[in-house]
Amino acid sequence: MTKLFLILHILAVIVAIGPVAIAASMFPPVARKVLAAPDNVGDTASLGLLNRICKVYALVGLAVPMFGFAAAGVMKVTGQTWVIVSIALTAVAAILLAALVLPRQAELLAGHGPRGREVGVKDTKQLAMYTGIFNLLWAAVTIIMIVRPGSTLGH
Question: φ and ψ at 118, to 5 degrees?
Fold first, then answer.
């Protein structure tokens, strides 16, 4: 069972988190192009597609912690530091995506931000920062999962 849950966990990470990380990273530069040339239908359509990829794969990404908890449970490592830190960083990444990245993408798509103000390049830079933090959190989780600091598994 351990190998099955680990395989499903890793596949879920690759299939779900990879597309979100890439699409979210591509969104701010494309949004800047749309702000500079709002009549460019191709870039505007690309922006909608990138947002849709982020939203759909964020939902698919719920499988990552589900299979991760299953694998950790079977391996009896849920109380180990490396697992707890990974869970915490994953939760922060999920909150960042749900509370900042996706809403900011929606604002840029709609063309207006909070209180109806018009969006601008500053908004794309802020979104790029949030997306970068999201990606760094996942990089940290990946490193922790490989290095497993404080692991008592002896591997």
Answer: -75, 140
Sign, CA torsion 47/51/56/62: positive
Nearest alpha carbon to residue 136 among 25, 15, 30? 25
Question: Are residues 89 and 136 in contact, defined by beta-carbon separation less than 8 angstroms?
Answer: no
Share of the chain above pLDDT 90, in %: 83
Query: Does residue 114 carry a pLDDT above 80?
Result: no
Q: At what angle do helices 121-147 and 18-36 cross, to 10 degrees?
A: 170
Residue 68: Cβ-neighbour burial (10 angstroms; 0-12, 13-18, 19+)? buried
Residue 58 token pair:
């964020």
Summarize the confidence of residues 15-40 as an average pLDDT: 95
Residue with tokens 């990829």, as numbered in its chain = 53
